Amino acid sequence: MKHAVALAVVAAAGLSCASAAVARPGTTYVVNGSGEPATLSSANCVGTSCPTLRDAVNTAQAGDTVTFASSLDNQTIKLSLVYNLSGADSSYGPAAFFLSGSTLVIDGSGHNITLARDTAQAPFRLFSVDSNSSLTMRGLTLRDGLAQGGSSNGGGGALGAGGAIFNQGGLALESCTFVHNTAQGGSGGIAALTGSSAGGAGVGEDATTLDGGGPNAGLAGSPPGNGGFGGGGGATTDTTNPGGNGGFGGGGGKGSSITAAGNGGFGGGGGGDAFTVGTGGFGAGHGGGDTDHVPAGGGGAGLGGALFNDAGSVSILNVTFYDNAAIGGNSSYAGTAAAGGNGSGYGGAIFNYAGSVALSFVTFGNNPTAAGSGGDGGSADVGALYSYGDASCLNGGNVCTDGSASAEMVNSIVAHSTGAALDLKIDTSAGPSSSTGTSNLIASLAYQNSFGSSWVVGDPKLGALSPQLHAPRLLPIPANSPAVDAAAACNDAKAQPVPADERLIARPQFNACDIGAYESNNDYIFANSYE
Predict the structure, then answer these.
(1) What are the pLDDT digits (tens) for 198-242?
(2) Cβ contact 265:245 at 8 Å
């Protein structure tokens, strides 16, 4: 699915996407079936009636809306077809849908529909949005996405980023639930990839040869090539050149016994089996092996279990994040000179990289992080939101502006992160990163930097997700929760009124709006356990 239809016209006329939408009245396409078509490019709609979600999205042009027939209410659409490795226009790893040059709305309001990865398939995330696109999603549950970086043996593992969504453009999420999505770093030094698998892994492909994994892989040679955006560095084929460096997210390639291995790009593991092992990029492990020729690349980082925002702009309103995980990649040979470094897991729900995120009436609950294993080091932290500015964000083929990050949060709940010392972090170690906020509830003061000073501290007494497998699957609050009637105003981060909660229940119900995605209206039923 490549929505470039209107982009060339817009560019030629010197218009913005918004201007193009005004010039062409948007069409609403209705999805009538829960299956997948035979091919990725299927666009078999009859008028505005479409047999599958994919047919509707492929048919839609800039400014159009996709919605659902009532016959699909309370159903799950299992996604199984995948975009991957499309060169310089890469979806940044496998994704069910890839928006390029598009402005699209997918509106499931009132239908209680879940979009889920078919877990019988290989790992893939649900949506990738490039820097020329915008996506608005309403009233949907996004479930079981798995962004898993590629793996290598002598090269470094790749970054796993954004289990449900990888965003470089404009993203608006309204009344949605994210549950059981995972960002998993790729492994280095794994026995399953032996022999010549010494290139650095890519975000969309294992390194099974001396070449790096794709997309935009660096090729093996004398000297080897560096990886581009998402690609692993190539391994050296002589004894005089170092291994190639990984691009943004890619692992470093193997060096030689008298040279250095390649370094990982942002989130990519360092290459191993060289006189000087490669260093890992942010959150990733160093290479191992040294001169004993035991291949052991470093593990890649896992960042943003539900969402990775890569220098894009994200608005989130009335959304629940539950049990989304960021997990670092593995390495090998712990306790020996050959040990590679494990990858780290940061941002169980969201990782904001050099972009902007505005959150209003959001609930974060039980989002875990974990480091990789098998090698040495690695760490796990920040279950809800990790915001990271990076003055070097253009390195490795990435597209960004000035590298600064900003995060704003109002009327939101942050609670019960697992495997992490912090729930929230504003990281200024590599570039400017700012935060503002008001009227937020946190279960304990487990955050770094303030998001403003008006915190409510206490257990929000979150209930369990509803037993049904469909939206709205938000975490309810009882009448005695400190979130009840605690919002300073029924407004979002832009000071606009918010008249309803995630379920479309009117706000406020009593004296004032409740903090979080759920507005208590005395319909709370206690559950025995989390899902």
Answers:
(1) 999 999 999 999 999 999 999 999 999 999 999 999 999 999 999
(2) yes
